[in-house]
Design a protein that fits this description.
The protein has helices spanning about 10-25, 30-40, 90-95, 100-110, 125-130, 175-180, 195-210, 240-265, 280-300, 305, 310-315, 320-325, 335-345, 380-390, 400-440, 475-480, and strands spanning about 50-55, 60-65, 70-80, 80-90, 115, 120, 140-150, 155-165, 170, 225, 235, 275, 355, 450-455, 460-465, 470-475, 485-490, 495, 500-505, 505-515, 520-530. The protein is built from 16 helices and 21 strands. The radius of gyration is 25 Å and the shape is globular. The two termini are about 40 Å apart. It is an alpha+beta fold. Helix content is about 40%, strand content about 25%.
């Protein structure tokens, strides 16, 4: 199994609690919610005659070691012409009907919120970790999205229905990754090995399909704020395992097929909620193309290798961003420059958002996308399940006016919850950064190597290599290295002053000086050449 789970010390917990208070997130549930939970515990509806009995299928859940709110279980099978994916989702809509106090409270929260070492659940733990969670070796209600795929992994049809399932095991990502590679036998997979092996097969087919459709595969450094052995926060690198990508593809498939269902039935008094990700605006694409041109000139790179001519400006003679990013190096010779360009490509993107109108999701290359897969963690999941089930059950006495009002509220609170989680993550990163830099002061201010990832008139973004931190340098930090009043050159690819130049992809050394006016300041060691 994976590493131990540490808990914040008292000081760190106070800082995290303050983040929650400032975000307006509360831990306690009102008394009427507790009463409804007791009623559901007494009658969980597992004997519902409408449920299709799938307890003979060896479903399993795959999650983090510490996860207790198990939203999804999967069963995969081969068919005559390809594959079948059964994705079972916790039936939170049954436990949390729209007229309940539980739903009203979920609507106030919008989502579960995750902090280092603990979470604040949207639903009471008796449900989210108990009778609704798809825990192993017990029967549970679920909403199953069944998708048929051809031999290339392309969906040919999909259905949705309520079912009774019994998960055979709660598996951890790391253990499954090692099992698929033949490196571990930490769990007995005899009952579900054929299904689990197909996770790799279908995952690779779906990844290949994304690449073929020119979906951008960004190279990014993944990090996570965790609690160390002393209860302090630290930022660590998170390796993206193959099983993470495979499991992600199954989840994406479920959400895409769920969105198609919503769109097909939008006229049936159904109130859908979609997740939309617009393409980067034309102006940002042009800026990136020009910036790459500046990097090539500033670094003296081979234009045949490094120049990008976008299809938006050059038509068929151009190249998609996905194809360009896939061919430039991110490791070894040229890797420093390649990683900096990838970061710039990420920054041109818009943010995704929940809406009532179907539209493409640029980030995954889908014509429509919805969030079916996290019904215990997101109120939008409960609502989309409810709406889909009203169509499936052919309910004619729907409260359409109420549901339209709820639809608008769900969109609003879901977008707000995304923003709150983003702020929580950012504040946790700042706490971890403060702790690390304070320790560096005590350690005699060692020099940390970093990579120049972004440049602005009065700001430089640096990725420190180890530990994996992002820091910002401001004008005062740059005076010794560049001199006064540096200016951007080469279309923003370089920042030049009377004493020197910083260019995207440069390696620099940083030594913390201390706090100045509420922010950290640094001494900057002259840049070294990027990897060649």
């Amino acid at each position: 199994m994976e590493g131990a789970i540490n808990r914040p010390n008292a000081t760190t917990q106070q800082l995290l609690d303050r983040i929650l208070r400032e975000a307006g997130v509360r831990r306690e549930f009102p008394p009427n919610v507790a009463e409804e939970v007791e009623a559901f515990v007494a009658q969980p509806g597992i004997d519902d005659a409408r449920l299709v009995d799938l307890t003979d299928l060896p479903f399993v859940t795959i999650d983090e070691v510490e996860s207790r709110d198990l939203d999804q279980a999967l069963f995969l099978a081969e068919t005559d012409g390809g594959y079948r994916v059964d994705y079972a989702l916790a039936d939170a809509a049954y436990a949390v009907p729209a007229e309940s106090a539980l739903f009203a409270e979920s609507l106030k929260r919008g989502a579960s919120f995750y902090l280092p070492g603990f979470a604040v659940p949207m639903l009471p733990r008796a449900l989210s970790e108990g009778l609704v969670s798809l825990n192993p070796h017990v029967e549970r209600r679920s909403l199953v999205v069944r998708t048929e795929l051809d031999a290339k992994g392309t969906p040919t049809s999909s259905t949705m229905f309520r079912a009774r399932i019994r998960s055979r095991d709660k598996l951890a990502y790391g253990d499954v990754d090692r099992w698929l590679a033949g490196e571990t036998d930490t769990f007995d997979a005899a009952a579900y090995a054929p299904s689990l092996r197909l996770l790799k097969t279908i995952g690779e087919l779906r990844i290949a399909d994304q690449i073929e459709r020119d979906v951008v595969q960004h190279h990014r450094r993944s990090t996570e704020v965790v609690v160390d052995a002393n209860g302090n926060l630290e930022i660590v690198a998170v390796a993206r395992r193959l099983v993470d990508r495979y499991n992600e593809q199954i989840s994406l498939l479920c959400n895409i097929e769920g969105a198609r269902f919503l769109r097909r039935h939008v006229q049936a008094d159904l109130q859908p909620v979609f997740k939309v990700h617009e393409r980067p605006p034309e102006s940002r694409v042009q800026e990136l193309e020009t910036l790459v041109e500046g990097v090539v000139a500033a670094r003296g790179l081979d234009p045949e290798v490094w120049t990008w001519r976008s299809r938006r400006t050059h038509g068929d003679a151009g190249e998609t961003l996905a194809a360009y990013l896939a061919r430039i190096p991110v490791e070894g010779p040229g890797g420093d420059v390649g990683r900096a360009i990838h970061r710039q490509a990420i920054w041109i993107n818009r943010r995704s958002e929940f809406t009532v109108e179907a539209a493409p999701h640029h980030g995954i290359g889908a014509e429509e996308y919805a969030r079916f897969s996290a019904p215990m963690r997101e109120v939008v999941g409960i609502f989309t399940h409810k709406e889909a089930l009203e169509v499936l059950d052919e309910i004619s006495d729907q409260n359409v006016e109420r549901d339209r009002a709820l639809q608008a509220q769900v969109v609003e609170v879901s977008n707000r919850a995304k923003a709150i989680q983003s702020r929580i993550d950012k504040h946790a990163e700042l706490i971890a950064l403060d702790h690390f830099l304070e320790q560096d002061l005590e350690r005699g201010r060692p020099v940390r190597e970093g990579l120049v990832m972004g440049l602005a008139k009065n700001k430089v973004y640096i990725d420190i290599e180890a530990p994996p931190l992002e820091v910002k340098l401001y004008g005062d930090d740059l005076v010794t290295l560049l001199g006064d009043h540096p200016a951007l050159t080469h279309h923003g690819a370089a920042l030049a002053g009377p004493h020197g130049v910083l260019t995207l992809g440069d390696r620099v050394g940083l030594r913390v000086k201390g706090r100045v006016k509420g922010r950290w300041s640094f001494d900057v060691v002259r840049p070294t050449a990027p990897q060649t």
